[in-house]
Amino acid sequence: MKSVQFIDGKAVHVVKRFSCDEWVELVTAYLENDLDEPTRQRFEEHLAECECCGHYLHQFRVTVTALGALPPDPPPDDMRDRLLSAFRNRRDSRVEERRSS
Amino acid sequence: MTRISQMSDREEAIVESFTGSRLPPDDVVVAALRAGDESMFAALLDTWSRGMLWLARSHVSTNDSAEEVVQDTWLAVIRGIDGFEGRSSVKTWVYRILVNTARKRGVRENRTVPWSSAFEHREEPSVDPACFQSADDPFPGHWKNVPTAWSTPEGEVLAAEVRGLIAAALAELPPRQRAVITLRDVEGCTSEEVCEILEISAANQRVLLHRARVAVRGRLEDYFETARRSA
Description:
The structure holds two protein chains of two kinds. Chain A is mainly alpha-helical. Chain A contains five helices and two strands. A two-stranded antiparallel ribbon of chain A has the order 1-2. Chain B is mainly alpha-helical. Chain B folds into two domains: 12-108, RNA polymerase sigma factor, region 2, helix turn helix motif (Rna Polymerase Sigma Factor, Chain: A, Orthogonal Bundle); 115-230, Winged helix-like DNA-binding domain superfamily/Winged helix DNA-binding domain (Arc Repressor Mutant, subunit A, Orthogonal Bundle), CATH 1.10.10.10. Chain B is built from eleven helices and no strands. In chain B, helix 7 (90-108) runs parallel beside helix 10, helix 8 (160-172) crosses helix 11 (202-230) and helix 9 packs across helix 11. The longest helix of chain B is centred in the last third of the chain and has 29 residues, at 202-230. Classes of the chains: A mainly alpha, B mainly alpha. At the A-B interface, helix 1, helix 2, helix 4 and helix 5 of A face helix 2, helix 5, helix 6, helix 8 and helix 9 of B.
């Protein structure tokens, strides 16, 4: 991976490139749009050159999508029944209050 | 729901799964609860209780204790809905009641580990350094075992096996990472909502979320690698 190129004896790209182990730490910040502009550019430069990290980013996105695709998980039945019954009691007692006032 | 009908089955399943977004706007929710609409209350129960349970678990010492916190929170919601002033979203309001209830109980159980302690190791790498080449290798800092392309045919991420792996991965996470990833990625809260609910900074929220995602990805990697090799 070329971090510094020499053209006519002069170093270009003197801004340090990310190595993969540095890059992976920024993936969530990148997906959250929380990188400042120079860092985002360096992140994307690395991404454009590194197939491995491209795969990693895709894997990360698959992971986030899969988490969002978990089906709902209702509370245990006995708790759910108790709470629905508490909700009904409260409603009924309020109807009572309104009638008597 | 005409927009959804144009999507593929997989996309539809994913949109469906963002259960939070299936709930109507707050004013409709509040009016329904005040009017005694049991189906609306049941929808909130079914949508938010998992996130609430994990979050409660990050403050108290047992699963039973966390369940009681969730139950007490819903009872407080039933009592308090008439007085709800709408200064935050309903979701944030409910979760704030939960956090306060859980904290009080954590104090009673002598289990008051401050959330700030979750960030003591934030400078440590989230991905195992063993995944990368060391200083003696040809390309220090580059992948040792290179990540491969995960083939994800339609519906693959929803496969029962994947769901089971994710559930297992979540269960193994440190409680605070689990609370954040559940709220963000499973329940679909925004980062602003999570910061407000947990009273943590955006940067700290991101640290916990990133570590949790790295861990869950690691669990899925085994599955996809095995699938790839046997293909």
